[in-house]
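Colleagues,

For the teaching module next term, I've prepared a clean inverse folding example: a structure given as C-alpha coordinates, and then the sequence designed for it. I'd like students to try predicting residues themselves before seeing the answer, so please don't circulate the second half yet.
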Protein backbone atom coordinates (compact mmCIF):
# COMPACT_ATOMS: atom_id res chain seq x y z
CA UNK A 1 0.00 0.00 0.00
CA UNK A 2 1.26 3.49 -0.87
CA UNK A 3 1.31 5.67 2.24
CA UNK A 4 2.84 8.89 0.89
CA UNK A 5 0.41 11.81 1.17
CA UNK A 6 -1.15 12.29 -2.23
CA UNK A 7 -0.86 16.07 -2.22
CA UNK A 8 2.87 15.84 -1.54
CA UNK A 9 3.27 13.14 -4.16
CA UNK A 10 1.51 15.21 -6.80
CA UNK A 11 3.52 18.33 -5.99
CA UNK A 12 6.73 16.33 -6.45
CA UNK A 13 5.48 15.18 -9.83
CA UNK A 14 4.74 18.72 -10.97
CA UNK A 15 8.08 20.00 -9.68
CA UNK A 16 10.31 17.20 -11.00
CA UNK A 17 8.80 17.23 -14.50
CA UNK A 18 8.22 20.98 -14.71
CA UNK A 19 4.95 20.05 -16.38
CA UNK A 20 1.34 19.06 -15.76
CA UNK A 21 1.44 16.36 -18.44
CA UNK A 22 -0.13 13.02 -17.54
CA UNK A 23 0.71 10.18 -19.95
CA UNK A 24 -2.02 7.58 -20.40
CA UNK A 25 -0.97 3.95 -20.82
CA UNK A 26 -3.62 2.28 -22.99
CA UNK A 27 -2.09 -0.80 -24.67
CA UNK A 28 -4.40 -1.77 -27.54
CA UNK A 29 -3.67 -5.42 -28.45
CA UNK A 30 -4.13 -4.59 -32.15
CA UNK A 31 -1.08 -2.33 -31.90
CA UNK A 32 1.25 -4.62 -29.98
CA UNK A 33 4.77 -4.38 -31.50
CA UNK A 34 5.56 -7.38 -33.69
CA UNK A 35 8.68 -8.20 -31.69
CA UNK A 36 6.55 -8.71 -28.58
CA UNK A 37 3.64 -10.60 -30.13
CA UNK A 38 4.67 -13.99 -28.74
CA UNK A 39 6.20 -12.76 -25.48
CA UNK A 40 4.45 -13.56 -22.21
CA UNK A 41 5.41 -10.13 -20.83
CA UNK A 42 4.89 -8.22 -24.07
CA UNK A 43 2.36 -5.75 -22.67
CA UNK A 44 4.64 -4.91 -19.75
CA UNK A 45 7.69 -4.38 -21.99
CA UNK A 46 5.67 -2.25 -24.40
CA UNK A 47 4.35 0.03 -21.66
CA UNK A 48 7.67 0.11 -19.84
CA UNK A 49 9.37 1.37 -23.00
CA UNK A 50 6.93 4.30 -23.16
CA UNK A 51 7.36 4.96 -19.43
CA UNK A 52 11.14 5.10 -19.69
CA UNK A 53 10.93 7.37 -22.74
CA UNK A 54 8.59 9.90 -21.11
CA UNK A 55 9.05 9.70 -17.32
CA UNK A 56 11.11 12.89 -17.03
CA UNK A 57 8.40 14.81 -18.92
CA UNK A 58 5.32 13.59 -17.00
CA UNK A 59 3.90 14.42 -13.60
CA UNK A 60 1.80 11.24 -13.73
CA UNK A 61 1.14 8.00 -15.58
CA UNK A 62 -2.45 6.83 -16.00
CA UNK A 63 -2.74 3.11 -16.84
CA UNK A 64 -6.24 2.20 -18.04
CA UNK A 65 -7.14 -1.04 -16.30
CA UNK A 66 -9.50 -2.41 -18.98
CA UNK A 67 -6.72 -2.45 -21.58
CA UNK A 68 -4.74 -4.80 -19.34
CA UNK A 69 -7.63 -6.91 -18.02
CA UNK A 70 -8.96 -7.62 -21.53
CA UNK A 71 -5.58 -9.19 -22.37
CA UNK A 72 -5.33 -11.13 -19.09
CA UNK A 73 -2.39 -8.85 -18.30
CA UNK A 74 -3.26 -7.74 -14.78
CA UNK A 75 -0.01 -9.27 -13.48
CA UNK A 76 1.88 -7.16 -16.03
CA UNK A 77 0.04 -4.07 -14.80
CA UNK A 78 1.22 -4.91 -11.28
CA UNK A 79 4.81 -5.08 -12.53
CA UNK A 80 4.40 -1.84 -14.45
CA UNK A 81 3.06 0.11 -11.46
CA UNK A 82 5.83 -1.31 -9.27
CA UNK A 83 8.43 -0.29 -11.85
CA UNK A 84 7.14 3.28 -11.99
CA UNK A 85 7.17 3.57 -8.20
CA UNK A 86 10.67 2.08 -7.94
CA UNK A 87 12.40 3.85 -10.83
CA UNK A 88 10.40 7.09 -10.96
CA UNK A 89 9.14 7.71 -7.41
CA UNK A 90 8.24 11.35 -8.07
CA UNK A 91 5.81 10.41 -10.85
CA UNK A 92 2.25 9.79 -9.68
CA UNK A 93 0.50 6.52 -10.55
CA UNK A 94 -3.18 7.22 -11.25
CA UNK A 95 -5.13 4.04 -11.96
CA UNK A 96 -7.98 4.70 -14.39
CA UNK A 97 -10.57 2.17 -13.23
CA UNK A 98 -13.75 4.25 -12.71
CA UNK A 99 -14.83 2.03 -9.83
CA UNK A 100 -17.93 2.47 -7.70
CA UNK A 101 -20.23 0.10 -5.85
CA UNK A 102 -21.82 -0.46 -2.47
CA UNK A 103 -19.33 -0.07 0.38
CA UNK A 104 -18.80 -3.81 0.96
CA UNK A 105 -17.74 -4.22 -2.67
CA UNK A 106 -15.89 -0.93 -2.91
CA UNK A 107 -13.68 -2.16 -0.08
CA UNK A 108 -12.35 -4.88 -2.41
CA UNK A 109 -12.00 -2.49 -5.33
CA UNK A 110 -9.94 -0.25 -3.03
CA UNK A 111 -7.73 -3.18 -2.06
CA UNK A 112 -7.22 -3.91 -5.75
CA UNK A 113 -6.24 -0.33 -6.62
CA UNK A 114 -4.04 0.53 -3.65
CA UNK A 115 -2.73 -2.79 -2.34
CA UNK A 116 -2.50 -4.93 -5.48
CA UNK A 117 -1.47 -2.24 -7.96
CA UNK A 118 0.03 0.26 -5.52
CA UNK A 119 -1.63 3.25 -7.17
CA UNK A 120 -1.43 6.66 -5.54
CA UNK A 121 -4.94 7.46 -6.74
CA UNK A 122 -7.83 5.86 -8.63
CA UNK A 123 -10.72 7.21 -10.69
CA UNK A 124 -14.17 6.50 -9.23
CA UNK A 125 -17.83 7.00 -10.11
CA UNK A 126 -19.66 9.32 -7.70
CA UNK A 127 -23.09 7.95 -8.61
CA UNK A 128 -23.50 5.82 -5.47
CA UNK A 129 -22.61 8.63 -3.09
CA UNK A 130 -20.23 9.20 -0.21
CA UNK A 131 -20.55 5.88 1.62
CA UNK A 132 -19.54 4.01 -1.55
CA UNK A 133 -16.31 5.98 -1.93
CA UNK A 134 -15.33 5.96 1.76
CA UNK A 135 -13.40 2.64 1.48
CA UNK A 136 -11.23 4.17 -1.25
CA UNK A 137 -10.54 7.31 0.75
CA UNK A 138 -9.45 5.18 3.70
CA UNK A 139 -6.56 3.87 1.57
CA UNK A 140 -5.63 6.55 -0.95
CA UNK A 141 -6.78 9.40 -3.17
CA UNK A 142 -9.70 9.39 -5.58
CA UNK A 143 -10.60 11.36 -8.71
CA UNK A 144 -14.37 11.53 -9.15
CA UNK A 145 -15.95 11.58 -12.58
CA UNK A 146 -17.44 15.06 -12.88
CA UNK A 147 -17.85 16.07 -16.53
CA UNK A 148 -16.27 13.48 -18.79
CA UNK A 149 -14.75 13.99 -22.23
CA UNK A 150 -17.07 11.78 -24.32
CA UNK A 151 -19.77 13.16 -26.60
CA UNK A 152 -22.65 11.79 -24.55
CA UNK A 153 -21.40 13.21 -21.26
CA UNK A 154 -24.12 15.82 -21.00
CA UNK A 155 -27.01 13.33 -21.14
CA UNK A 156 -26.75 12.95 -17.37
CA UNK A 157 -24.01 15.32 -16.28
CA UNK A 158 -25.75 18.48 -17.56
CA UNK A 159 -29.18 17.66 -16.07
CA UNK A 160 -30.60 20.65 -14.21
CA UNK A 161 -30.84 20.05 -10.47
CA UNK A 162 -32.61 23.10 -9.12
CA UNK A 163 -30.73 25.62 -11.24
CA UNK A 164 -27.37 23.84 -10.98
CA UNK A 165 -26.19 21.16 -13.44
CA UNK A 166 -25.55 17.74 -11.93
CA UNK A 167 -21.79 17.85 -12.62
CA UNK A 168 -21.46 20.93 -10.42
CA UNK A 169 -23.32 19.16 -7.62
CA UNK A 170 -20.66 16.47 -7.91
CA UNK A 171 -17.85 19.04 -7.84
CA UNK A 172 -19.31 20.68 -4.74
CA UNK A 173 -19.82 17.34 -2.99
CA UNK A 174 -16.26 16.22 -3.65
CA UNK A 175 -14.79 19.58 -2.61
CA UNK A 176 -16.68 19.54 0.70
CA UNK A 177 -18.05 16.25 1.99
CA UNK A 178 -15.57 13.89 0.35
CA UNK A 179 -12.57 16.08 1.11
CA UNK A 180 -13.34 15.75 4.82
CA UNK A 181 -12.71 12.00 4.47
CA UNK A 182 -9.53 12.04 2.39
CA UNK A 183 -7.67 13.42 -0.62
CA UNK A 184 -9.78 13.99 -3.72
CA UNK A 185 -9.76 15.34 -7.24
CA UNK A 186 -12.14 15.67 -10.17
CA UNK A 187 -12.21 14.35 -13.74
CA UNK A 188 -13.29 16.98 -16.28
CA UNK A 189 -12.72 16.55 -20.01
CA UNK A 190 -10.63 18.94 -22.08
CA UNK A 191 -13.43 18.80 -24.64
CA UNK A 192 -15.63 20.92 -22.33
CA UNK A 193 -13.65 24.02 -21.40
CA UNK A 194 -16.66 25.97 -20.08
CA UNK A 195 -17.62 23.13 -17.77
CA UNK A 196 -13.98 22.85 -16.65
CA UNK A 197 -13.99 26.54 -15.71
CA UNK A 198 -17.22 26.06 -13.75
CA UNK A 199 -15.81 23.04 -11.93
CA UNK A 200 -12.70 25.01 -11.01
CA UNK A 201 -14.86 27.74 -9.49
CA UNK A 202 -16.74 25.12 -7.47
CA UNK A 203 -13.52 23.42 -6.33
CA UNK A 204 -10.77 26.08 -6.32
CA UNK A 205 -8.01 23.92 -4.83
CA UNK A 206 -8.76 20.35 -5.94
CA UNK A 207 -6.52 18.72 -8.53
CA UNK A 208 -8.36 18.03 -11.77
CA UNK A 209 -7.57 15.23 -14.19
CA UNK A 210 -8.25 16.53 -17.70
CA UNK A 211 -8.56 13.73 -20.30
CA UNK A 212 -9.49 14.22 -23.92
CA UNK A 213 -6.35 15.84 -25.31
CA UNK A 214 -4.89 14.61 -28.58
CA UNK A 215 -7.07 11.88 -30.11
CA UNK A 216 -10.30 13.38 -28.71
CA UNK A 217 -9.29 16.86 -29.94
CA UNK A 218 -9.56 18.65 -26.63
CA UNK A 219 -8.10 22.17 -26.64
CA UNK A 220 -5.03 22.19 -24.39
CA UNK A 221 -4.72 25.99 -24.27
CA UNK A 222 -8.40 26.40 -23.38
CA UNK A 223 -8.14 23.69 -20.73
CA UNK A 224 -5.18 25.42 -19.12
CA UNK A 225 -6.92 28.78 -19.11
CA UNK A 226 -10.08 27.27 -17.63
CA UNK A 227 -8.67 24.86 -15.10
CA UNK A 228 -5.33 25.94 -13.65
CA UNK A 229 -5.42 27.01 -10.01
CA UNK A 230 -5.17 30.69 -9.21
CA UNK A 231 -3.16 29.96 -6.06
CA UNK A 232 -0.11 28.44 -7.77
CA UNK A 233 -0.82 28.02 -11.50
CA UNK A 234 -0.86 24.24 -11.08
CA UNK A 235 -3.74 21.96 -10.17
CA UNK A 236 -4.13 19.99 -13.43
CA UNK A 237 -3.15 16.59 -14.77
CA UNK A 238 -3.44 17.14 -18.51
CA UNK A 239 -3.88 13.64 -19.86
CA UNK A 240 -2.79 12.48 -23.29
CA UNK A 241 -3.08 8.76 -24.01
CA UNK A 242 -3.28 7.64 -27.62
CA UNK A 243 -1.59 10.79 -28.94
CA UNK A 244 1.53 9.85 -26.95
CA UNK A 245 1.32 6.09 -26.46
CA UNK A 246 0.42 5.43 -30.12
CA UNK A 247 2.30 8.37 -31.65
CA UNK A 248 4.41 6.05 -33.82
CA UNK A 249 1.29 4.97 -35.68
CA UNK A 250 0.75 8.45 -37.09
CA UNK A 251 2.57 7.71 -40.35
CA UNK A 252 1.62 4.03 -40.65
CA UNK A 253 -0.60 3.27 -43.63
CA UNK A 254 -3.00 0.37 -44.04
CA UNK A 255 -0.99 -2.76 -44.75
CA UNK A 256 2.24 -1.42 -43.29
CA UNK A 257 3.92 -3.45 -40.53
CA UNK A 258 3.51 -2.32 -36.94
CA UNK A 259 6.23 0.06 -35.70
CA UNK A 260 9.22 -1.36 -33.86
CA UNK A 261 9.46 -0.94 -30.08
CA UNK A 262 12.33 1.54 -30.33
CA UNK A 263 10.34 3.62 -32.82
CA UNK A 264 7.33 3.56 -30.48
CA UNK A 265 9.46 4.87 -27.60
CA UNK A 266 11.08 7.56 -29.75
CA UNK A 267 7.75 8.78 -31.12
CA UNK A 268 6.16 8.78 -27.66
CA UNK A 269 8.98 10.91 -26.28
CA UNK A 270 8.72 13.39 -29.16
CA UNK A 271 4.95 13.72 -28.67
CA UNK A 272 5.35 14.15 -24.90
CA UNK A 273 8.03 16.79 -25.43
CA UNK A 274 5.75 18.78 -27.73
CA UNK A 275 2.89 18.66 -25.25
CA UNK A 276 5.09 19.48 -22.27
CA UNK A 277 6.54 22.47 -24.07
CA UNK A 278 3.08 23.67 -25.07
CA UNK A 279 1.92 23.38 -21.45
CA UNK A 280 4.91 25.40 -20.27
CA UNK A 281 4.52 28.12 -22.88
CA UNK A 282 0.77 28.48 -22.47
CA UNK A 283 1.06 28.53 -18.67
CA UNK A 284 3.57 31.37 -18.91
CA UNK A 285 1.39 33.36 -21.33
CA UNK A 286 -1.66 32.97 -19.09
CA UNK A 287 0.29 33.97 -16.00
CA UNK A 288 1.79 37.00 -17.71
CA UNK A 289 -1.60 38.05 -19.06
CA UNK A 290 -3.16 37.72 -15.61
CA UNK A 291 -0.44 39.86 -14.09
CA UNK A 292 -0.88 42.54 -16.76
CA UNK A 293 -4.66 42.64 -16.52
CA UNK A 294 -4.98 42.02 -12.80
CA UNK A 295 -7.45 39.25 -13.59
CA UNK A 296 -5.90 36.95 -11.01
CA UNK A 297 -4.81 39.18 -8.21
CA UNK A 298 -2.71 37.34 -5.72
CA UNK A 299 -1.87 34.49 -8.08
CA UNK A 300 1.44 32.85 -7.34
CA UNK A 301 3.30 31.80 -10.47
CA UNK A 302 5.37 28.62 -10.35
CA UNK A 303 8.36 29.21 -12.62
CA UNK A 304 8.95 25.46 -13.02
CA UNK A 305 5.76 25.27 -15.09
CA UNK A 306 6.41 28.23 -17.30
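(Answer key — instructors only)
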Amino acid sequence: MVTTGFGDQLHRGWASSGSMLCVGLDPDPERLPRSLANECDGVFRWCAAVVEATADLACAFKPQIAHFAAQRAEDQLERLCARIREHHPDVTVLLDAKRGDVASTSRHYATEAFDRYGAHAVTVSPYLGTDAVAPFLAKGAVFALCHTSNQGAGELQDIDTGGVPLFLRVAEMVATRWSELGECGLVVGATYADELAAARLAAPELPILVPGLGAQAGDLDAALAAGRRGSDGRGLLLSASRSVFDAAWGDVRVGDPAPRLDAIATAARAAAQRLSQQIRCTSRVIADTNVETGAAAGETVDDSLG
